[in-house]
Amino acid sequence: MKQSIEIIKPSSACDTAQKIKVASFFSGIGGFDIGFENAGFAISMQCEIEPFCNSILAKHWPKIPKFSDIRDVRHDRIPSSTVWVGGFPCQDLSLARMGKRAGLRGNQSGLFYEFARLVGEGLPRIVVIENVAGILNSHKGKDFAILLSTLAELGYAVGWRTFNSKNFGVPQSRQRVYIVGCYRDLRGPGKILFESECGTGDSSESDKNGKKFKTPFQEIIGDPSGKGPVIQSIAYCLYATSARHTGTDWSRNYVCYPRDGMIRRLTPSECEGVMSFPKNWTIPNSKEFVGDELDSARYHALGNAITPPVAEWLAHKIRNYLLEAKI
Length: 327
Known about the structure:
This protein has 9 helices and 12 strands. By secondary structure, it is of the alpha/beta class. The protein has 2 domains: 19-195 and 306-325, Vaccinia Virus protein VP39 (Rossmann fold), CATH 3.40.50; 216-304, no CATH class. The longest helix has 18 residues, at 308-325.
């Protein structure tokens, strides 16, 4: 059974493109949403439970219908949308978590089942899921197998691929797994996730003089002999840490002032750039969050976010696939 593409009519004479509708779940601060809008899609709804993230969504998408707790969402209230996207919580899957990982049995990552419930009731044409690489080996791979089989039992052909944001122009090494499900279409996931042509790659381990190749983390930007600041040319993966946290991302990502012998962590605004979000994206209109509380909320939201350039690349691939298929 083939499903038609749901579109929004152009709102003005200047907007001649028909826009495919996208429903956004676990929206965060809108990483998926920015990418898909940049590729010509229209966001039909958003679902996010965190108050700070909701304040950011309200700032940038004030007219889009919003839901809070996915457990309370009924599928008949979701606008008819061709594509559903969502990065369900990674807390119980992440390798950055100390101790044993609960995986899909956890209270947070277990919300995947609520998303699957809605998918089974709504049967969108395409589903896109993002999560940390830890999903691949959680409970020795059993959790990932459950995710795939759940989608397959609903009628979806499923494919997955690990993308590193640094390969999409993002100044950060951030590996995430992207899973694409196409309803009753075996060709879809492969066409969307993989290129038909091979790239040239970059596998050199040394330069022409035989010197050992430097990783991007060893390259610095700035003038070490001056007053600074000096930073790495590419950041390590940003985690959802607060301003008061001294965790892994802060110990590896810092700004150095060699002349003064001082270092500091990246500011929230700098983290926006490292994540490739627009400047001041995470500053809400409301005054509910101020000072250190605002900084902590921004750090946390950005660390959990999806980098928009990766989402945009996927969105273009999905759009081309749908238009070529004439579904």
